[in-house]
Each structure stands twice: as C-alpha cells, then as structure tokens.
Amino acid sequence: MRFARTLSAVTACLALLALRAAAAEPVRVAAASDLRYALAELRTQHVSARPGASIELVFGSSGKLAAQIANGAPFDLFFSADAAYPRRLRDKGLCAGEPRLYARGRLVVWCPREPAGSVTIADLAAPRFRKLAIANPRHAPYGQRARQALEKAGVLSAVEQRLVLGENVSQAAQLVESGAAEVGLVALSLLFNPSLERADRYTLVPESMHQPLDQSFCVLERAAANSEAVAFASYCESQAARDTLRRYGFATPGGKFP
Predict the structure, then answer these.
(1) Is the pTM of this model over 0.70?
(2) Domain ranges for the chain
(3) What integer pLDDT is reported at residue 17 of this predicted model?
(4) Does domain 2-104+214-247 have CATH number 3.40.50.300?
(5) Distance (Å, rounded) from C-alpha 151 to C-alpha 197?
C-alpha cells in the first residue's frame, strides 16, 4: 500500500513537471516574411500585457513554411501571405478550426535611387534597370503576384533575364537594399522598417494587376489546447493589432490601405 501511494505521488509530480515544462515552452509561430516588423511589434505588445508569455517567430516564404508544417514541423500558429496555404493545411486536418483573414498586403515598386513615385511597373523594361529583385514565385506569394503584375504590364518578357530571386520577399528587399538589384517588387510592409534608408522611394502597384494578397492565419491542430497560442491568436485579431497592421501598410478586415 505504501509503495502504491509513493508511486502515485511520483506520477503526480512527474505530470505536474511535464505541464510546467509545456507551459514554459514558447509559442512557435511560422510567419510570412512580409510580417517581419509588424508581427514583431504585435509580439511585443502582447507579451507586455501578458507577463510570462513567450513567443518565437520564424519567418520565411508562405509556401515553404506550409510544406514544413505539412511534414511535421512543430509550429503552433501559421500566418500566411496567401490564404490558399492555410486552406490547404485545413484540408489536410492540420488546422484547429477555420483559417481567419487578418490582412491584405500590398505590392510596390521600390527603387531607392529614384524619386518616390517616379518608377512604375511599366518602366521596369528600361535598360537602366539591369537587375530586378522579386521573391521566388515557386513558393512566395509576393513573387507570384510580381510575375502577374509584370505580365499584365506587358514587360515580363523584357525583364525575364534580369530577374534576381530572393527566397522570400524579405530577401528580395535585401537585394535592393544592398545594391545587388537596382529595383524590386516587394512588400510595402517591409519599407516601414525604421532603419531602412530611402524606404519612401516606392510606387504602389495597382491591385488590378495581380490577384489580391489576402492573408490568413490558423491555429495549428497541435496547439488546439495551448492557451498561450490561442491567446496570441486572439490578440492578433484585436482592434489594437489591426491598428498596428495598418501602420505597416496592410489593410485589415473592415479597413483600408493608408
């Protein structure tokens, strides 16, 4: 009897330690790279209001992140730059509930060496633009939309051999920032990085030139009972979070682009 009571006590202690260890693990968030600055600010806001919360952000192209999740990568939340990827994960039974729309992104022509608004997508065929950076369209939504816009503008064939590809839209912006490309088709949200020089030298690409960048997120099935993951997901749908997203150039449900 004494042995049984001791065994029960040990089992209870181990269960408690396991629960504490699970609670101490950070919420792991896979996020599209256009959210690099906006989502980092949302994390700061959330953690400041919820002491003890720990959130780890991993950025990349939506397509690659979705593939990693489908192959068992241990993420709790997935924020995509294209609503199609969370839908596919839902169809595979990997989402806890329906994906939710959180923002719409915006594609811009960013050319730091030219005055703001002076370079349109139709101008990119000009020989002075020797390298044009875009995200890899095989797995990056902004790269897919960039190709659509170039084709719509009638300049895709002229610039095809001058394209340089970033693995994601953040890397495409870095190619422009470093001078490896004179111009890029990148996410407006990335130009709100306060340390970025000449970030205001961009031109909006008309939304009629590409499919919309409707962005959705989902709580992944493995985190369905993770209260910290659910709490951060809820915060990202709050009015305060939407106000922050709009400051980074996103439209939000019920909102408009600045």
Answers:
(1) yes
(2) 2-104+214-247, 105-209
(3) 39
(4) no
(5) 29
